[in-house]
Amino acid sequence: MPAPFHLDIMTPERSFFSGDVEGIVVGTPDGEIGILAHHEPMLTPLTIGSIRLNVGGTWKEAFLSEGFLEVGHRRTVIFSQACEWPEEIDIRRAEEDRKLFEEKLRQQTSIREYKTNKIAMARAMARLRVTHTQRYNLK
Question: Structural domains in the chain?
């Protein structure tokens, strides 16, 4: 069993998670990375998607918006715009958002609007994927 290390996940609204984990897997612009205890210190941006946490030998998954991961010698910290457990996600709202921003992407009028709508749609899709995985236990 891997050695535990301390993880804090913070959003602007709350402290999402604070505790010991045996590992995490997050998405970065270069792909997914896994972090275990005694990982080299690093700082990296995070992409919209999910975070998987190994807590007490059990893997848990949550929605994770864009942010940053800082791995230090004593603790690992994630600063994210949003982080939600599957049971906290309003599936109907996420599906409505996906449809709305999909349509807005078809009608974009500027590069800025296109990028904003693409990010919003990515968040909705990630929320739906995390709830789908949880509901059908497809890990």
Answer: 5-84 (2.60.15.10), 90-136 (1.20.5)
